[in-house]
Amino acid sequence: MDLLPNSAPLATKLRNTLIQYHSTGDSEWRVAKKTKDATVWRKPSEEFSGYLYKAQGVVEDVTNRIVDHIRPGPYRLDWDSLMTTMDIMETFEENCCVMRYTTAGQLWNIIAPREFVDFSYTTSYEDGLLTCGISLDYGEVRPNFVRGFNHPCGWFCVPLKDYPNHSLLTGYIQTELRGMLPQSAVDTAMSSTLANFYSDLKKALKT
User: What pLDDT band is residue 59 in, cutting at 50, 70 and 90?
Assistant: First the structure.
């Protein structure tokens, strides 16, 4: 198992990687799923053999409150149906932490529960916020879980210019679930999970 990385250079590299994804031209993305709450696109990942997913939708709330519901903290477990446990393992300066969390089985348990250990970083971006993360090989893997790996992921949340109480939320997710899984099952699960993320988040913000 690796030692914990130096948080400052990792945070800077992660932020720059996410901004690079955010500037990828529209022509490189292919629509994977569309719902009333969000559109999900995908393109081949440069990090591993799966896809980098992009999700986008307008959420009716202010940026800070939305990001507080997404980043590691007490809100996330309350509303994210996929996340079953979450522990903050280490806390660094400047909105950085290492968290361990587990996810529920998906697709009638074709995808068994997973465990992740992620470095998480939240920072300002334009008039809003960026909260991003990447998995670390850190800590013992718990029994009954497969350890998954998140390549650079993140959520950009910026207020809409004409409607400051609404925010544009754009996510970039590339999760390597690991274990023996048919890639088609993973792709189906990812698109649906991201679309559901928006509808669940909107419900949580209204309560």
Answer: very high
Contacts of residue 166, defined as CB under 8 A and 6 or more positions apart, other chains included, come to 58, 59, 60, 61, 159, 160
How far is it, in rounded angstroms, from Cα 40 to Cα 11?
A: 26
Count the domains in the chain.
Answer: 1
Going from the C-alpha of 90 to that of each of 31, 119, 120, 152, 206, the distances in angstroms are: 37, 9, 10, 19, 31
Kindly state whether residue 7 falls inside one of the protein's structural domains.
no
pLDDT in tens, 71-84: 998 899 999 988 99
Q: Name the E strands within the chain.
A: 30-34, 39-44, 51-59, 83-91, 96-103, 114-125, 128-135, 146-147, 149-150, 153-159, 167-173, 175-176
The CATH number that applies at residue 88 is 3.30.530.20
Tell me what pLDDT residue 17 has.
97
User: pTM higher than 0.90, yes or no?
Assistant: yes
Plot region of 66 (φ>0 → left; ψ -120 to 50 → alpha; else → beta): alpha
